[in-house]
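DM from R.C. (forwarded with permission)

"hey, sorry to bug you on a friday — could you get me a structure for this? deadline for the figure draft is monday and I only need the backbone to look sensible"
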Amino acid sequence: MVTECKSVGINGIDGYMVEVEASAQPGLPAFDIVGLPDAAVKESRDRVKSALKNCGLNLPSARITVNLAPADIKKEGPIYDLPILISTLKQTGQLVADVSDCAFIGELSLGGDVRKVNGVLPMVIKARESGVRRIFVPSKNAFEGAVVDGIEVYPVDNIVQLVAALNQIKPIEPAKPQITTQNKTNDFTPDFSQVKGQFAAKRALEIAAAGGHNILLIGPPGSGKSMLAKRVPSILPEMTFEEMIETTKIHSIAGMLSNDGLITMRPFRSPHHTVTPVGLGGGGTGTIKPGEVSLAHNGVLFLDELPEFSRTTLEVMRQPIEDNKITISRSGQNCTYPCSFMVIAAMNPCPCGYHGDPTHRCICTESQIKRYLGRISAPLLDRFDLHIEVPAVKYEELRSDELSESSAEIKKRVDRAREIQRERFGNAAVCNSKLNDEQFLKFCIIDSEAEKTLKNSFESLGLTARAYNRVLKVARTIADLDSSEIIRSEHVLEAVQYRSLDRKYWATRV
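My reply, with the result:
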């Protein structure tokens, strides 16, 4: 007789159903697992044997074969320990309950405890879509899975508790949804009111946040580039429930959920400049893990000291920035992760940092500056919608008692602009930076004066077709902040102004 139960696997950001079958045949005692298991899955037999023995349950003296179907998909990780144990218990008659409407996920300790695993949220979603009514997961993953409607999620601490519940001896209460934040609270909350001066940079960041645009900050050391970038999440719109679910799925797969609740704050990822192409884009040996571009999904990816990143690493971003997704292919594996994020990059104008600074002498040679700026390719530079210079703050501004505008005030204007975009496009996830070709032609309407301004700027600055599109998208955002349906000349002029620094720094050197 063959016994079976259901489990769920992970491929990219989505789950897939797995049938765990067990069969016991006469012969020398053995425990084999088939169905394309990796090393961690093969080791399940030892964990299951030890857990059964230490919990007072019996393993028959027979040749037991466990199959994980479909057999043509590689099974990875310890998540199948629990379903393998359940199928084995049904084979021995120690579990008589009907589990046809149940699914099981969990890693076992040698003592029979059920340990936390990664990727529970997308697995629970897939189980619900496949008609599963009840799913049993590790207790530490229960709140993560409980946010999914239409399926009962049961927290399991150990296999003795699980067997008692399935045999209707002592039931387990299903977990209840609990939305918590992943951001640790502390005494210091980054706010734009703490930034002295830098009014032009604040305006540019407000435009970037209102339209979801990528922005490049250029300035000398200590001018406040990183300080400004770290305050951008405080002016971004609140996440929708769908965005929370999708973001949490990615972090769940990466094993980065700290309190098992939904992520309610937009991610802010700031990888070090030594990050590898795999670390930024995703991949790795074995399971394909999401990279920084996916972990920043629905949030901000901040690249500090941009020229210090390897050029190979930076080029990884070119396609994800355009497509809002990244497909990673490895031998026998292929998965796609979403990566709709806002890029903020900061850099010095030269290796010493003081090229063009009126108060410090630059010690770099022309060739050093050329090599430094040449680390950023023209196609990548073209993907930044706004380029803004961040000069050193003057002493009078630092000592001024005048309060700067708070993030809350800036956020009101950003939210208003995003609401205009939501009503225009009928989709909260679409902002001006994400316009497709059809929407671009329909909604980026300019008057005759703005047309002349744009034509003169295009010819004088030598803008590319991509830069032309991005200038108009930025102008569309500026018009939204101004509550204007038509893009006027002043909106185009301001948008073009944010595309001039690449000509100042790169035009004669790259």
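R.C.: lifesaver. The chain is about 35% helix and 15% strand.
me: no worries. Residues 181-187 have pLDDT under 50 and may be disordered.
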